[in-house]
Amino acid sequence: xxxxxxxxxxxxxxxxxxxxxxxxxxxxxxxxxxxxxxxxxxxxxxxxxxxxxxxxxxxxxxxxxxxxxxxxxxxxxxxxxxxxxxxxxxxxxxxxxxxxxxxxxxxxxxxxxxxxxxxxxxxxx
Amino acid sequence: xxxxxxxxxxxxxxxxxxxxxxxxxxxxxxxxxxxxxxxxxxxxxxxxxxxxxxxxxxxxxxxxxxxxxxxxxxxxxxxxxxxxxxxxxxxxxxxxxxxxxxxxxxxxxxxxxxxxxxxxxxxxxxxxxxxxxxxxxxxxxxxxxxxxxxxxxxxxxxxxxxxxxxxxxxxxxxxxxxxxxxxxxxxxxxxxxxxxxxxxxxxxxxxxxxxxxxxxxxxxxxxxxxxxxxxxxxxxxxxxxxxxxxxxxxxxxxxxxxxxxxxxxxxxxxxxxxxxxxxxxxxxxxxxxxxxxxxxxxxxxxxxxxxxxxxxxxxxxxxxxxxxxxxxxxxxxxxxxxxxxxxxxxxxxxxxxxxxxxxxxxxxxxxxxxxxxxxxxxxxxxxxxxxxxxxxxxxxxxxxxxxxxxxxxxxxxxxxxxxxxxxxxxxxxxxxxxxxxxxxxxxxxxxxxxxxxxxxxxxxxxxxxxxxxxxxxxxxxxxxxxxxxxxxxxxxxxxxxxxxxxxxxxxxxxxxxxxxxxxxxxxxxxxxxxxxxxxxxxxxxxxxxxxxxxxxxxxxxxxxxxxxxxxxxxxxxxxxxxxxxxxxxxxxxxxxxxxxxxxxxxxxxxxxxxxxxxxxxxxxxxxxxxxxxxxxxxxxxxxxxxxxxxxxxxxxxxxxxxxxxxxxxxxxxxxxxxxxxxxxxxxxxxxxxxxxxxxxxxxxxxxxxxxxxxxxxxxxxxxxxxxxxxxxxxxxxxxxxxxxxxxxxxxxxxxxxxxxxxxxxxxxxxxxxxxxxxxxxxxxxxxxxxxxxxxxxxxxx
Lengths: 125, 797
Fold this sequence. Notes:
The complex is a heterodimer. Chain A is of the alpha+beta class. Chain A has helices spanning 2-26, 119-123, and strands at 27-29, 43-49, 55-57, 62-69, 72-78, 92-99, 102-110. Chain B starts with a helix and ends with a helix. Chain B contains 20 helices and 22 strands. The interface between A and B is large, with 46 and 67 residues.
């Protein structure tokens, strides 16, 4: 019983340590544009893409646009093509790092029109 | 829609009546009949609410906000019906319907527990109807100011096209069947604490707990299928908050099922089970709160509408009240609860395996719960939202799945009382050998990454161990050598044996199915090959060992020039290798409403027995502005796109090196659609600013020009510029495909149905065992003898 308890304890601690490490590694804070200067690596930024700045290069499948939040504007480069429904998105979340005035997005979340989409857009018409 | 409001409020009134009648029926037993009647009334009102909503959807009452938002005239009848759960209000109604149905079953089967469980359960129905009263699906569409000429609108906004598929009609009803079922163990647990009775309830709750786990699990899987088949991101599961909020209640309810098993068979877990079975429901309510209140709006790829304030209030009330009452009552009762039976196991036992299983399931549920809540926790405590990358869940699930697999493989072979290591090894040898052989097969196939291979071997171990358990139960092959299998009759006997033992194999079948499904999920994820394949019209691309050629878009005919406007537009791509040729047709459609363009993608999946080729888009198809280019020597002929160009020869005009000098390339161009070839003479003109190419129009509106020329080598580069938007020029499409090679997805489809079947078999078995189990617990002479009851409870039902 004592040995069991000890094994259990060691396993639990190891599991806890592992989980916490994985947790810290994979946490990425949401920051505002104005905070990008302080925290630049592996962040989430919620942006409103400015329609007239959206450029898409078919050859390299690179999407560039300027996005803004209430604290400022930032240029975003996203090399993985244009996500579906990007044009329609009122807000996108870009995940990546900020270098030399440009935000290099590794990933982008576009609100997908799910079943919970709804009435607000409908009211607009 | 006055009728709608009326039935909802009547439903509230009936439910309230049922609560009161059931609550008072302890003193006045005749009131129990009132309670039943009133609950029936509430149920009928829920049905009536659905009927009114369906009527509004089918007849097209677009003056209602809900109908306007989720339906339209041109929608197929099926999707008009499915519109009933396309929105927030409708999904609450779906929840209410299942809750009502389960209530009727619960009422008839709860026996001595009816008064307690039905009081609580009617309260739940009241809360749900309350939410529907405040967040009504019958709210009128607000009239905009200034009012449009036609009011009310004659057509609706329509169902989101990405929801218009078969899964939309299947997945929500099934997953809500699971969600709603969580409430039954919750009320049983509370009723048990209330009554201070800890034996009978577990027997009664057992089939419900298994049922809830089964349905919720199957609902989750269906959601995964839906995502895979239609969303086009190439996976079954993405650790999205919406997925997670149904995942952690499922894990904990699965833990609860094993807790109940331990109590009934071994008299253990007596004090923990009420908590374990109550919490999944609370977690689900919490998840609903997370996803419906808008707190996660920034983090999830799903978008949410916040609930109306009062409806949200009811939800928070349910959550806070539920948590307080459950925890409070449990703590209050803890000292009065009977002690669990002593641990009589030695060495390795099934009991220990179950305890480990419960611990592992609970820990995983806790991690997923904290992970999903993290954005909220970070915001509350650090003032800054933070997201947890989905990779986190993949990482923590690796050690978890290893431990869980070991436990799940060992459990069916272990005896309750415990065995020595030698005995276990002897019993497990066969399945272990088979698992290792599977590992060799996987290695030979090409799955060589050690960790993945190890996990696959462990999961195969689970599968074979459980298969072995079924084998033994069915007494297939008992006392026979392999020669017996040479006789056809042996197979008939084996089938008969399986049929005989069908109800006792449920648990093993669920684990077998889970292991098989997980192997598929892991292989298809770990060995996925993903590549962006850009297919250009008129120019073949090589990828995945195939040649990809653009053929056309099916939407072309209805919408000349803009085929992507056609709802059924498919992009046809021919895929060929040296020995095979097939066509993939992923669907792409852009719908425009009020100036906004939204893209709808439906991937195309080509299935082989061992892998899927999954073709989706990583960007919308583009019209290329780049010219088609072709280099030709003098007198040479070549083909670019559909055009054939013959370079006839050079000509010059003007003085070399002077302004106005022209270098002309005479060419003959033909196209299958033209009646005859044309001769053109595009040239390069010496200008003050330099040399500029001057294009010449072709009969179809495209332009031909001379890009570069090398006069000494008599070589010219012709360029063809397309004119987008002019159908006759046949714009050149660039199709940005995202292609996945995913091995062994077939297992993801094979496993879960077996799990469903196993779960349902177990439900039937345990539901049948309720009466017998309760009879054994309560001998006529004394119905409050815990020690005796405790002993009896260990009888395997």
